[in-house]
């Protein structure tokens, strides 16, 4: 039988897995792999820093609904991926990261560019492998793709020593994956579901709380049907934005530290909370002892560890969100829930009242651009149809609050880990996944500088990504905390020096635009959005604008600081 | 919530790095390990770990679930409260001065232990039993001068009906 090199086997297996795009950066330990990659039809996106490769693969995965793939070299190539992997792990994004490694006989010798990346990434991957023999390669790759995308998805790392990549083996097609130690539960317990129907029928003030898990399982359609049929108001976590149309009257907007008044107040008053694909992060619950204290909580999640980790649960349901909702919708179809319009009236009136008395608000003045105004204008001009990526901090929260996401997978953000520098590489990944979509990175002047080198990648691959920098010359979110809780001592949060972003864009071969006055915002946006090039649109915004509402860390989630 | 001792019996794929994944999970999530024992089972590709940990009810549920979530973990059983046998072994090296030699041997006999190494100035005693028995013999031997102790940590299995 014909012998293939490890690198050839890798390519064959990747193609069989349907991989079309790889984000990566070559180096000594992966030179054999690159030498085979270049002979295939797989598109390779050469980033300018390995961290960006992982963020791009993360966003590509979300926008495309496929497993993202990265390829980097050993040592620093591998360590540079760690932040990206940790972010994908916290956000449960399916991804396979392939790292080069020094030859097996050198492992443990502190060889040049050797690092124990399997050891380093053990706590931030769903699983990882060090491939010891070329014979094992095909099976491990297939298993890695299976693990990454099944159950609660996550990143899987495969460390391939150089002699495994250039060593020979007889290629055998990998077997179907069947693992005695890994069998995710997709089908929910039907008896538990019947109890949920009873709770919905009896509840006076029910609500739905949906998160990233609902998006990942593709449950948006079933969820929308469920919400409309049961007439329950719905809030989402940051990761859940877009799973239900944000402009629908039953949408409460986002919940949490910077959630809407009506969403947060609802959790304090509801008597039933149906939580779907969420993990009750501290930024969502605030003080857990008093979170949804009057409510029975139904928690649907594919990961059993998410259930009862942070809050007590009345009815735990382990299962795939979409599959569970399909069953639940069927049960609801057959159930007599009574006259819901009448039953829900007081509760929905109360919510409407919260919305009208305390909406999300800011005051746009004549002279200074408000950052929220920029986001609202972006929403208006893109008709809510753009893919928005964000950096982390105020820019992320304003994007979440003022861009009313209508569809899932249109808001791509580093939710769990909160990685500054995520937005630009993410925009690159999303644009490659969806070439015909408008992709906008809503950024701050601080975070954009963390992966600004990726402008070169965007320009090289002719990606028309748009970067909207809300420039307040501060690390705004930390400044906001310092203003509120540290007597305005702005320790190291003033960005005293920043580059001229317009010139910088031009230096990279992108287009640079700037708005300094409110009346210029729309013009700049229109011009930027119409361009076929990579564009930086810089908005000089109100320096000390803060994100409101805000719940101080550790306080009850209903205990909100309003404007 | 009150914290109690829990015995976890964990079947895992016998693969490199599995122990590191489990130990890493405990340290990374702030759980503690009282003792840990690991060796191959009858099946060559499977190992059994016995971990004793101190945790409250909520935490032990979370620990079990987190362990189950590891890809190489096949099964997690919590033995606490169930009918199970638990044993631990210790090797105790005692200073054996002439005046104590007979007394030590009597204690060894009472506890049904074995002397596995003898020297002019020491005995090394092998003792097997549950935690209570080990504590008892160590307490009794201590005044005579224990030079070194090596303990295995608990291993445990369900009783069959």
State the main characteristics.
heterodimer, A: 563 residues, alpha/beta, Rossmann fold, 3 domains, 6-stranded parallel beta sheet, 17% strand, globular, B: 161 residues, alpha+beta, Alpha-Beta Plaits, 5-stranded antiparallel beta sheet, 4-stranded antiparallel beta sheet, 42% strand, elongated
Distance between the termini of chain A: 73 Å
CATH H-level superfamily of the largest domain in chain B: ACT domain
Helix fraction of chain B?
Answer: 25-40%
* Number of spatially distinct domains of chain B: 2
CATH superfamily of the largest domain in chain A: Thiamin diphosphate (ThDP)-binding fold, Pyr/PP domains
Total helices of chain A: the number is 22
**Average pLDDT rating of chain A:** 97
Q: Quote the average pLDDT of chain B.
A: 94
Low-confidence spans of chain A: none
Which structural class best describes the helix and strand composition of chain B?
A: alpha+beta
Q: Quick one: CATH class of the largest domain in chain A?
A: Alpha Beta
How many DSSP-defined strands of chain B? Answer: 9
Estimated share of beta-strand residues of chain A:
15-25%
* Beginning-to-end CA distance, first to last residue of chain B: 33 Å
The helix/strand series of chain B, from N terminus to C terminus, equals EHEEHEEHEEHEE
What fold name stands as the CATH topology of the largest domain in chain B?
A: Alpha-Beta Plaits
Q: How many individual helices of chain B?
A: 4
CATH architecture annotation name of the largest domain in chain B: 2-Layer Sandwich
